[in-house]
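Morning - glutathione inputs below, output right after.
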Amino acid sequence: MSQTDDYTPPKVWTWNKPNGGHFAGINRPVAGPTHDQALPRGQHPLQLYSLATPNGVKVTVMLEELLALGHAGAEYDAWPIRITEGEQFGSGFVAVNPNSKIPALLDCSGTQPLRVFESGAILLYLAEKFGALLPDDPAGRTECLCWLFWQMGSAPFLGGGFGHFYAYAPSKIEYAIDRYAMEVKRQMDVLNRRLAEHRYVGGEQYSIADIAIWPWYGALAKGLLYEAGEFLQVGEYRHLVRWADEIARRPAVQRGRLVNRLVGPLESQLHERHDASDFATRTQDKLQDKQQEPS
Ligand SMILES: N[C@@H](CCC(=O)N[C@@H](CS)C(=O)NCC(=O)O)C(=O)O
């Protein structure tokens, strides 16, 4: 096994900027704004500040699903936050999310704007606001929320753990990759077993549990995250793959994936979303932007 035992932690940790790996440019050990930057504001009650990473896609899929269900009050303006350029540290964004991470939502439909941050909290807020995509009965609701919170607790092991050490870390550390590969395979097995018995993660009804889990574990199961499909043998989790394919076919999911996407084929990018008609005209948007990746 390769070892990294040439490092002895000092008594007091200090910030070694160049040692931060792939995200060295944006990672820092303190919170709060770095600069003044107001957020743009559109005409709809819901203002979303986000990016088409897995955490961002959860919310745009949710909003598109709500609109597809006929909830006109879910009309939204979606503004891109360029996290590789540090826009999450602007004063306006920090006021909406003190944790400086996308996605962040501002609901301006009441007398005072209401901020909502953390993707799981945003999904739950929207589900309750519109009475949709969350079962009403106590048992169904509880099961759905268990899986929603499962995702919020599990994905950091996939993204911050496995993805970081497998794809982004400046050196390949066998111990770290082993540890997180084992955990991620265990998580996929959890989902696979659940989906062997139920059509959707929450049960027989499509819900915010699927909307939270699909952008991470659906992409993983299709080999689209961290180029790790072969390494993790994702095709073995056939019930998870079946579910991932079914969710991917939903028109609202296909629309939601495009919103605030700044990279990839031009037809997959919709930098800002202000109206349903924006999807039809998106290929006219010729702006290119810097790489975005889940952190
Ligand atoms: N637990 C948060 C995680 C959000 C998150 O990690 N967002 C990433 C992009 S996927 C981000 O904004 N990173 C910027 C940074 O870390 O500075 C949520 O689910 O909303």
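Note: The domain at 138-254 is CATH 1.20.1050.10 (Glutathione S-transferase Yfyf (Class Pi); Chain A, domain 2).

O.
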